[in-house]
Amino acid sequence: MEWVETTAKTLDEAREAALDQLGVALDDAEFDILEEPRPGLFGRMRGEARLRARVRPTQARPKQERRRKSRSDKGDKTEKAGKSGTDTPTRSKQAASATADEATPPAASSEPAAPRERTNKQQQQGDEMSDDNTVTVTPDEVGAAAVAFMDGLTAAFGLQGTSEISVDGIELELNVVGEELGLLVGPGGRTLNAVQDLARVAAQRRLGDHETRLRIDVAGYRGRREQALIKFSREVAEQVRSSGVARSLEPMTSSDRKVIHDVLNEEDGVASRSVGEDPTRRIIVEPA
Fold first, then answer.
1. Helices vs. strands in the chain: H and E counts, helices first
2. Which stretches of 97-165 are DSSP H helices?
3. In Å, what is the CA distance from 210 to each residue of 60, 199, 201, 269?
4. CB 212 within 8 A of CB 173
5. What is the C-alpha to C-alpha distance for residues 122 and 125, in angstroms, rounded to an integer?
6. What SS3 state is found at 44?
7. Is the pTM of this model over 0.85?
8. Residue 151 has pLDDT above 70, yes or no
9. Is residue 252 over pLDDT 50?
10. At residue 54, what are phi and psi to the nearest 5 degrees?
11. In terms of DSSP bridges, do strands 171-178 and 213-218 run parallel, antiparallel, or are they unpaired?
12. What is the overall mean pLDDT for the chain?
């Protein structure tokens, strides 16, 4: 994902502007501060905050990680069992021969060394095998998992639809095609956004971490929503230019705010900024 650069009066405002441009939440982005405001006279700040941000890349987690942990736990249990099984006879023998030479170690205490050494060696071999057999999750596998999830969810809603997936590098677009699928969309697309999050989590739990971006649409809703937002943004820009009065829009998701910011950035005579915190975060359109 390419970096985007934003400038504002404070770092928080610059960070929020970057999130709006990326269309993601705070936890899904990483930032690089380029310039911070400097304190001036009478407590005022001089200069502006400037930073760059991008969508945080996810690291693929080896599929064999659980096996390594299981082998490690099993090795620890074997080692503890070997130790506990030999402590009792050792103490008994030491108590029975209290007058013997204390510098001579009991014969029983030397026996667990061989099992412990074998356990450590087996654990090391298991780690090497796990490293050699590391499995990388492909976008096609993520797409197949997302299709299976959406088909099951559509059936659970009592609806009839077909999931179609398209893969472009790490970008995955899944569209559910059918009739009367409004239940999967919900008011303002809020149900659809929740379904998209669930599908991402389901794919991650099934396959492990992967570096893909999954976007889900239902009956072409997102395309229609984007066109409606573009038209609405231009109408608001004209109203603000004509009246010279700022206007506050209703709360929106980060993806909807990104569409509006992108449109208003191309409009002359107006500027936009986001205020508040999700889920009530909204856009203010004001004369430039």
1. 7, 11
2. 113-132, 139-156
3. 5, 13, 11, 43
4. no
5. 5
6. coil
7. no
8. yes
9. yes
10. -155, 165
11. parallel
12. 78
